[in-house]
Amino acid sequence: MEAIRWYSDPQNCIDAVAALRWPHGKPTCPKCGVAEGERKHYWLKTQRRWKCYSCRKQFSVKGDTIFEDSPLGLDIWLTALWMLRNCKNGVSSYEVARATGVSQKSAWHLLQRLRLVLKDLKPAKVEHGPAEIDEVFVGPVPSKMHRSRRLRMKVGGHGGDNKIAVLGMLDRETRQVRAKLIPEVTREVLQDEIFRHIERGATIYTDGHMGYDRLRLNGFVHETVTHIEEYVRGSVHTQGIENFWSLLKRTLKGTYVAVEPFHLSRYVDEQVFRFNNRINHNDGTRFAKALAQVAGRRLTWNDLTGKEDPKDSIPF
Ligand SMILES: [Zn+2]
Fold first, then answer.
1. Second label for 14, Cα 20 to 30 Å away, from 27, 77, 198, 304?
2. Could you tell me the CA-to-CA distances from 305 to 57, 84, 110, 294, 310 in Å, in that order?
3. pLDDT tens digits, 162-183
4. What is the pLDDT along the chain (316 residues), one digit of tens a residue?
5. What's the CA-to-centroid distance between 58 and ligand 1, angstroms?
6. Residue 283 falls within a domain, yes or no?
7. What is the distance in angstroms between the CA of the first residue and the CA of the last residue of the chain?
8. 44 — phi, psi (to 5°)?
9. How many whole angstroms from 25 Cα to the centroid of ligand 1?
10. Domain assignment of residue 287, yes or no
11. Residue 257 neighbours by CB under 8 Å, 6+ apart
């Protein structure tokens, strides 16, 4: 609540974004690149913009960021970002709409845009191990869906075929996670991911899934736990990565009740960020890290939707 009140003041928002964009404290014109020095840019108070003393063009703190071209104020963007980053189980577009006063549809687009930019540019490395590796299926529960949606998504009574597989790897030393959607749970796909991300010779813990059965032949130290007989055998377990799955599932169930497959990877990325940044951060530093990532990037309609044509877009 304190954060929401703070970011309802437009000047606080401008100061926060300016501090991240220009850490030296000198607003820099994005058009000609001239920073304040001996001479100051003119501050146009009512428009909350600067006029460049050199090229005479106007610029705002939103220029060249994902906030540019958005009719929504920074107060709304930053409030949504705060909620997205610091609500432990995620936040829904309805909650953001209530807190900021925009429509639920605008809030939904706003959150999707933020999620896309927040995708960690440098994903966590899980290369030396020891690593826990596991896969999980997530997807809609057809019995809880409205009939029309069930028909539209073509899911049957039990919905097994409509579930999507996610592969996760946890580095036991750094406690960092990588997770991504995979097309199918086969030996080829699983081993390809492992070969790509983990060094030969590393120790890997998995369950007894067939897809992992040739890791020893490929130079890994491979320990498995058979869930039918045992869950933990000394250090041989996969409870770290399973802990991540339960957090992911809680977020999807509790908050994002209606995730379509197309958007799932963004929610997985969001949960990875939350997991990998859960220690050594408080609400303030976590927000600052997210804002630093957001402030420096632009985003096209293409990036957001994978579509060329913004005609049927909802302005936000
Ligand atoms: Zn200029």
1. 304
2. 32, 20, 13, 18, 9
3. 678 899 999 988 888 999 889 8
4. 777 788 888 888 888 888 878 878 889 998 898 988 888 999 998 888 999 999 999 998 887 777 877 788 888 988 998 888 887 777 888 999 998 899 999 998 888 888 877 775 566 677 787 999 999 888 766 666 667 766 665 554 444 456 788 999 999 888 889 998 898 899 999 999 999 989 999 999 998 888 898 899 988 999 988 766 666 667 778 888 999 999 888 877 765 555 566 677 878 888 888 888 777 777 778 787 777 777 666 655 455 555 544 443 333 3
5. 8
6. no
7. 23
8. -90, 105
9. 17
10. no
11. none
Closest to 220 measured CA to CA, from 238, 206, 209: 206
Total number of domains in the chain: 2
Q: How far is the CA of 22 from the centre of ligand 1 (A)?
A: 15
Ligand 1: distance of its center to the CA of 34 in Å? Answer: 6
CA distance 214 to 159: 31
Distance (Å, whole) CA 57 – CA 68: 16
104 and 16 assigned to the same domain: yes
Compute, in angstroms, the gap from residue 52 CA to the centroid of ligand 1. 5
Read off the amino acid at residue 305. Answer: T
| CA 41–ligand 1 middle distance (angstroms) | 9
Specify whether 252 is located in the same domain as 138. yes
| 108 Cα: distance to centroid of ligand 1 (angstroms) | 35
4's CB contacts (< 8 A; 6+ apart) are 79, 82, 83, 99
Q: The pTM is what?
A: 0.68
Which has the closest alpha carbon to 314: 125, 57, 166, 103?
A: 103
Kindly state whether residues 93 and 161 are assigned to the same domain. Answer: no
Give the CATH number for residue 245: 3.30.420.10
**Rounded mean pLDDT of the chain?**
80
Ligand 1 midpoint to CA 59 (Å): 8
Q: Does residue 141 belong to any structural domain of this protein?
A: yes
Answer yes or no: do 188 and 102 share one domain.
no
75 within a domain of the structure (yes/no): yes
Among 58, 84, 118, the domain-final residue is 118
